[in-house]
Write a structure and sequence with these properties.
CATH architecture: 3-Layer(aba) Sandwich
Number of helices: 9
CATH superfamily: Alpha/Beta hydrolase fold, catalytic domain
Number of strands: 8
CATH topology: Rossmann fold
Order of helices and strands: EEEHEHEHEHHHEHEHH
Distance between the termini: 35 Å
CATH class: Alpha Beta
Structural class: alpha/beta
Length: about 250
């Protein structure tokens, strides 16, 4: 069962695999939760020997507050601040971050702020808004009932999460969101991974993100993979993350 920690006005669920202070922190996607990581945290803890923490951002799973309407344009930046608070409260000083989609973007924003970070694996992150992503989410909003039903087992209020997430993504203000100009501040080793069949991004999302980070970044384009990389082949994701974690330990040593 998840544990819970209060951070400012939020009550955040989290879970740890392995013993000791977590070294690896996992951030789910825009409609995700701890449970939707499936076996990834457990297998990553087993492969690396490091304790792994995953948490539900507010509105996801059983974390609160529940959103009312679309999130604000800078919600990813707000969540990066919450991540920093969570790490301080749990005394995780130098985390290795594994983030998927919006969780990958939050990881990049966190590291670009100058916060300590051992390394990052960003799985299908966004660093700017592409029309293909807006189009895909707009199509989801046209028929939301199926999406909400699929999310119901994972969230206290799946409809509210879907409206908050999809509403901001298709907004005009968020269409101008672009963090590439700040990513050069990332100094920790960063692996950016994307599938070549991602419905929410073109290959330019991957390579322009890597280029914006610079020498600290490497990119991997996985043939035949879509957006939910860890749902397709968890072993591939764990292999990449475990190797990146081991490499980051070598650099730190």
């Amino acid at each position: 069962m998840p544990e819970r920690i209060d951070i400012a006005a939020a009550s955040v669920e989290y879970r740890v695999w392995g013993a000791g202070t977590p070294r690896i922190v996992m951030l789910h996607d825009g409609l995700g939760s701890i449970a939707q990581w499936r076996d990834t945290p457990a297998e990553l803890a087993d492969r690396t020997g490091a304790a792994v923490l995953a948490f539900n951002r507010p509105g996801h799973g059983g974390s609160t507050p529940i959103p009312a309407g679309p999130w604000p344009t800078l919600w990813l930046h707000h969540q990066a601040h919450l991540l920093a608070r969570l790490l301080r409260e749990l005394e995780i000083a130098d985390p290795f971050l594994v983030g998927h989609s919006d969780g990958g973007s939050i990881s990049l924003i966190h590291a670009a702020s100058g916060a300590p970070c051992q390394g990052i694996v960003a799985l299908a992150p966004h660093s700017f808004v592409e029309p293909v992503c807006v189009d895909a989410i707009s199509a989801m909003r046209a028929e939301p009932s199926r999406i909400v039903r699929s999310l119901d087992p994972y969230h206290v209020d799946a409809a509210a999460v879907f409206e908050a997430w999809s509403g901001v993504w298709v907004s005009d203000d968020f269409g101008r969101w672009d963090i590439r100009d700040r990513l050069a501040a990332i100094e920790c080793p960063t692996l950016v991974v994307q599938g070549d069949d991602d419905d929410y991004a073109t290959d330019d999302q991957l390579w322009s993100t890597v280029a914006a980070i610079g020498d600290a970044a490497k990119g991997v384009l996985l043939p035949g993979f879509g957006h939910l990389l860890h749902h397709q082949q968890v072993d591939v994701v764990v292999d990449l993350a475990a190797a990146a974690y081991a490499e980051s330990l070598g650099r730190a040593g």
